[in-house]
Amino acid sequence: MSDLTHLSLADARDALTSKKISAVELTKAHLAAIERARALNCFITETPELALKQAEASDAKLARGEAGPLEGLPLGVKDLYCSKGVRTTAASRILDDFTPTYESTVSGNLLRDGAVTLGKLNLDEFAMGSSNETSAFGPVVSPWRRKGDPNAKIVPGGSSGGSSAAVAAHLCLGATATDTGGSIRQPAAFTGTVGVKPTYGRCSRWGIVAFASSLDQAGPIARTVRDAAIMLRSMAGHDPKDTTSVDAPVPDYEAAVGASVKGRRIGVPKEYRLDGMSAEIAALWDQGVAWLKDAGAEIVDISLPHTKYALPTYYIIAPAEASSNLARYDGVRYGMREQGRDIVDMYEKTRAKGFGAEVRRRIMIGTYVLSAGYYDAYYVRAQKVRSLIKRDFDEAFAAGVDAVLTPATPSTAFAQGEQGSTDPVEMYLNDVFTVTVNMAGLPGVAVPGGLAANGLPLGLQLIGRPFDEETLFSLAAALEQAAPKIDFPQPWWREA
After folding, report:
1. Which helix (H) or strand (E) holds 445?
2. Predicted TM-score of the model (pTM)
3. 159 carries an active-site annotation
4. Spatial distance between the Cα atoms of 153 and 145, rounded to a whole number of angstroms
5. H or E element, residue 166
6. What is the sign, positive or negative, of the torsion defined by CA atoms of 447, 442, 134, 172?
7. Looking at the DSSP assignment, which residues form a beta bridge with residue 43?
8. What pLDDT, on a 0 to 100 scale, did the predictor assign at position 423?
């Protein structure tokens, strides 16, 4: 085989099973690709020795006929998942050289099923960002380039930008990611990859560094819908260590890929057609409707009237939970410590130096909305609005809608420094189509829809009923089949 890094995860699995390649060969090919792609800054920590050791063990299992579902497949792990014996940073200086003595449940599930882990992927600090520019380890560069503008460093989206860029650049077959307000789907849309945010409770959050506990959810980013389905089956499952984890059987998601979508009812919400929406995004949305119609789905107009409140509500609830979760980073129990004249001074100096600007901003917002006198006015009211947003979806599904189709992002990817430098709200607007899914705890998937006139990928989003990821995979596969095939970028980033 010519370039093993260009295999899909499913094809690599089949090649390993049929002994056409070995796990060590496949792993070495990816490690070589990573070594030559440092210009993209996708990895915070590379673990080549560990990966080769895991690959050798996988080859032995394959030889004995004891292979797991992901046996010998090289994956990347977002550096928000705790990895036993491997430094875990959450892309923040405050964790310093924190090295967990335990494995997160989801990454442990991948290892149980035979996956090879190549290293820890870059992200926005504590998953707070939409462009991967807030990482303490520097921004990730997308492998995509804007047509006629080769010098602009395009962002891969955030917060899972290291995951999306690494998958798009063929540095791994797939990657883990997390989604609190769109952090799987937006970077997937920006890089022409497939990103799945499962139903809240489908994947355990245990061992994943918390941002906003009622919104965070783990999920995969891969190059095809089938690959994402294969990964999610291993990642999902009940975990008694996470009280929000749901004890329900995990279906064979791969079996749903290619299933007929004839007769499925697809809702198109009028409230997502925003004032000033770009003509290109509107045309993509209309095209997505036409593709599903051609595949036999029935299209119905629906209303989700509280959509307009979703973004401001999210930016009250998420910072509030973040300010609470991040209170544990005080220089005593984890990571770095700055010396002070007393313990309060030590706290203040440690947190001031350890957190980046965006994290400090969200902690301050969150602390404010939770403070005495403002809790009822902001946080309690936001939770009430959240219930109304969820009720909108409940009513649409009760009326027979199987899934909702929307754009994934309001624009294509932008270049570093082009958004949010003077007004953070400009950056927050990137989440306008995705936050409702987290607020309602629903599953969502971003699927490539083609390329824009500037040569960058565009993505569509499907939103499903709770725990009905199977329907989403069948619909996403129909879109994938109908959309123009995207050729991932040629490796301009390779170092000699």
Report:
1. strand 444-451
2. 0.97
3. yes
4. 7
5. helix 161-168
6. negative
7. 121
8. 75
Q: Which residue has the tokens 């440092």?
A: 38
Res. 345 pLDDT band, cuts 50 70 90: very high
Q: Is 22 a catalytic residue?
A: no
Is the separation of the CB atoms in 62 and 114 below 8 Å? Answer: no
Contacts of 330 (CB under 8 A, 6+ apart): 347, 350, 351
Give the mean pLDDT of 454-464: 97
Q: How many CB atoms lie within 10 A of CB 58?
A: 27
Task: Out of 183, 204, 323, 411, pick the active-site residue.
Answer: 183
Q: What is the pLDDT of residue 495?
A: 67
Distance separating alpha carbons of residues 256 and 471, to the nearest angstrom? 7
Q: What percent of the chain has pLDDT over 70?
A: 99
Strand-pairing partners, residue 450, are 458
Given 22, 78, 92, 163, the catalytic residue:
78
The average confidence (pLDDT) of the chain is 96
pLDDT tens string 235-280: 999 999 999 999 999 999 999 999 999 999 999 999 999 888 889 9
- Token digits for 275? 């004032």
**251 DSSP assignment:** P
| CA proximity to 88, closest of 102, 73, 75, 106 | 102
Q: Which residue has the higher pLDDT, 276 or 142?
A: 142
Q: Catalytic residue, from 107, 159, 163, 164: name it.
A: 159
Q: Report the distance separating Cα 155 and Cα 165, nearest Å.
A: 9
- To the query of whether residue 323 is one of the catalytic residues in this protein, the response is no
Q: What would the two tokens of residue 136 be?
A: 């303490």
Residue in 99, 95, 151 with CA at minimum distance from that of residue 127: 95
Pick the residue with more confidence: 254 or 494? 254
